[in-house]
Amino acid sequence: MNRALATIFSTVVLSAIGIGLTMPIIPQLMRDVGHTSELGWRFGAFTGLYALMQFIFSPILGVLSDRYGRRPILLLSLAGAVVDYLFMAIAPSLSLLFVGRAIAGITGASMAVTSAYIADVTPEDQRSRRYGQLGACFGIGFIIGPIIGGLLGAYWVRAPFLAAAAMNALNLLLTLWLVKESHTRQDNTAPAERISFNPLSNLRWAASFKALLPLIGAYVVLVLVGEIGGTIWVLYGEDKFAWDSWTIGLSLAGFGAFHAVAQAFIAGPIAERWGERAALLIGMVSDGTAYVVLALASHGWIAFALMPLFCLGGIGAPALQSLVSGSVGPDQQGKLQGVLASSASLASVIGPVGISTIYFASRGTFPGLVWLIGASLYLLCLPVLVRKPAPAAV
């Protein structure tokens, strides 16, 4: 792995740690500054605001990186994150916390630029490997961050935000010193593309590529299916297996560890040996099988036994992202990755609402229903698997 990729992966780990640092303490901070013990709809709105900002701004940052380069947009985003975490550390009211959360969503949209950077510096046949490693780096950060954040938050409720600001400041310095520009506009005579603040216009742009729309649709399906675990894993463990908090924490840590290993060391070799569509198929079959077994399981140990199968399912997303990146040329990678990130954010806003509604409606009779629905959603991706690969974009 070259220095550019190693540095980018390091910055992703640091960014994820910064995000994870604040996660355990956000509810308490909201209660403190709001002077209320009942957050009600405010917590849901606070969470959804982050995803909404990513939905709007991921394509915008992607287009800006196509026009001005990846490095300056990354630096701008990291600088904004430092300011945001400092702002949230001193915010005296709930309304100002919402302002800070909106800024956090905007700066967090830089993952689209990071993905475009990887596409710039990686040969097409190795992109599944690199996107898998990118996902693993993000997962490692989310394992480390909440642990540190929980410890700091026990000392002072605003300490995790100061630590996150310091983490992003370090990230900014690393990027400034070590990350070189990966993208130069190939056709300097072409007129500059007008930047649209309407995320739907960017989706319409993606729909203009005949081979691209089914791939993006499949990507949204993978995100939606992934949201099932994130939404109901804790509830399902409590309701079905009577798990206590220690068992739930152990299951989440184990899942994160297995997932990072699968994306870092398994996704790339499988895609390179058998192709990206085969890797996608293996991922969906593994994940879908785990969902079906978990829906019918009667003992909690089965969920732990399924973790390798669950995490082998994680190889599908990097393979699919690699397939998507090969559908457009290098001058549109930023915009494309922005559309992907925006689509994922939209699914992350809508998905949990539908998933939780189905779960609470069915848990009295068959709590595993939502897992079976998730497995069946993978059938919508079959047209992508049987479709003849389009020629690589130039």
From TrEMBL:
Transmembrane annotation, as ranges: 42-61, 73-92, 98-119, 131-155, 161-179, 211-236, 248-266, 278-296, 302-324, 336-362, 368-386
Compartmental location: Membrane
Keyword Kinase: no
Gene3D superfamilies reported in the protein's UniProt record: MFS general substrate transporter like domains
Gene Ontology CC entries for this record: membrane
The keyword Transmembrane helix is annotated on this UniProt entry: yes
Keywords from the UniProt entry: Membrane, Transmembrane, Transmembrane helix, Transport
Membrane topology reported for the UniProt record: Multi-pass membrane protein
Residue span, Major facilitator superfamily (MFS) profile domain: 4-392
GO molecular function, one term: transmembrane transporter activity
Superkingdom in the source lineage: Bacteria
Major location (coarse): membrane
InterPro entries, sorted: MFS, MFS_dom, MFS_trans_sf, Sugar_transporter_CS, Tet-R_TetA/multi-R_MdtG-like
Function according to Swiss-Prot or TrEMBL: Resistance to tetracycline by an active tetracycline efflux. This is an energy-dependent process that decreases the accumulation of the antibiotic in whole cells. This protein functions as a metal-tetracycline/H(+) antiporter.
PANTHER family to which the protein is assigned, alphabetical: MAJOR FACILITATOR SUPERFAMILY (MFS) PROFILE DOMAIN-CONTAINING PROTEIN, MAJOR FACILITATOR SUPERFAMILY DOMAIN-CONTAINING PROTEIN 10
Family to which the UniProt record says this protein belongs: Belongs to the major facilitator superfamily. TCR/Tet family.
NCBIfam families linked: tet_MFS_A_B_C_D
Protein name per UniProt: MFS transporter, DHA1 family, tetracycline resistance protein
